[in-house]
Amino acid sequence: MNNFWxxxxxxxxxxxFLYVFFWLFxxxxxxxxxxxxxxxxxxxxxxxIPNLELPQNSLLALNPSVAFEWKNIELWADSFSTEPVAPNxxxxxWLLVLKMLYLIGVSIFSLRFLNQLIRLIRLRLRSSTxxxxxxxxxxxxxxxxxxxxxxxxxxxxxEFAHIDKHPIIEHERTHAQQWHSIDLLFTEIFSIFLWFVPxxxxxxxxxxxxxxxxxxxxxxxxxxxxxxxxxxxxSDTEKYNLTGLSNNFYCKTLKNRITMITxxxxxxxxxxxxxxxxxxxxxxxxxxxxxxxxxxPKKNKIxxxxxxxxxxxxxxxxVLPIEGSKCSLSSGFGMRYHPxxxxxxxxxxxxxxxxxxxxxxxxxxxxxxxxxxxxxxYGNVVVIEHANGLVTLYAQLSEFKxxxxxxxxxxxxxxxxGSSGMSTGPHLHFEVRKEGEFVNPADYLPIVVSPIF
Length: 453
Prior knowledge:
Layout: H1 4-25, H2 32-48, E1 73-77, H3 94-125, E2 128-132, E3 135-140, E4 147-149, E5 152-156, H4 157-160, H5 167-177, H6 180-193, H7 199-222, H8 226-234, E6 247-248, H9 254-262, H10 277-289, H11 305-311, E7 327-331, E8 334-337, E9 344-347, E10 350-353, E11 359-361, E12 366-374, E13 379-385, E14 390-400, E15 407-408, E16 413-417, E17 427-434, E18 437-439, E19 447-450
Parallel strand pairs: 3-5
Antiparallel strand pairs: 1-7, 1-19, 2-3, 4-5, 4-6, 7-10, 8-9, 10-17, 11-16, 12-13, 12-15, 13-14, 14-16, 14-17, 17-18
Helix pairs in contact: 1-2, 1-10, 2-7, 3-6, 5-7, 6-7, 7-9
């Protein structure tokens, strides 16, 4: 994934798609344990799938181990033009505004989360406790609805001070034993970063409802009869309710719980419907994998690298670094026999053979971070930093056409082809680095290869 904003976009779309699928097909099923797993699976899949990439045939595979000669390979750009584009005189910064609004929302919901956690801890410290099985009963003087958080079971002292066995206690004990608080913590953190997605709040209600269904069914099965338990649910009184991080016995889903308890159980054969999530998952994976290829490249001048990280939200393909419809490739990326040092060495870029003083252009928007002469190596070299952790290098130039610190746009002339360093003839040595690591430039260039045997 190229940057955080693209990743966030794909996570939100994938999450919405999978949750709507759950809401339509599985929400009313009585397989509560399976539904809990499906909901957690939706969260995990939404986070992981945007990072998956399906295997694709590369447009260019410059590997010296290929059994034919690369020196005379003809290259030509596809529909991407290398002509400079006039800079936008009035750049729109609405994406920056959206970014700031998003960060403000994350800050607000993070503070809300911390406030809930602090209130819960304070309530625990102000209360008396009693060990009961593997849980701790926390008796508080506050008028609260019984709730659980991990192995703590919070109870109003005036009602439960001398009671160890009670359907409500057993209900909350189920939450603790099945580690429902982990689900809630994970969901709360997830919802902080996707606060702008409306379905996140419905998802939180769904996972809490499933928790309550699980606790209700187990309590009725082992600790209470159905009629008494329904009467207990119907005796809802208005008390303090700590939302978000806790499982509360009396909550907004009370009517749904009564409906779920009294409805007929789903037939075992209906479990087959859960297989439908597999093609839905496949559709989401394919859509995320092909997302980059469906984004049209834009060619707007940027004012700084920070602007690039904002405006270049989607991955943009490079253009060829040399203007014109044709050029020849003299050396590819990988191990090769060095023509001057006469030994096997790693070649960290690709070489474009061209006439001296042929214009060299920036392959993408960026900022010039290096412009210098390196004797006996790169010669005259220009290094440009782009968005998404990408850096490109242009070496062996005969002349510079840019300045250090200058913002350049895709297709802008930055130098002329030459042979100013360690070289056997005029050419452009071109490198790409991703997060500081050398990568094959061919993976980023819009090139079609026609090998000549």
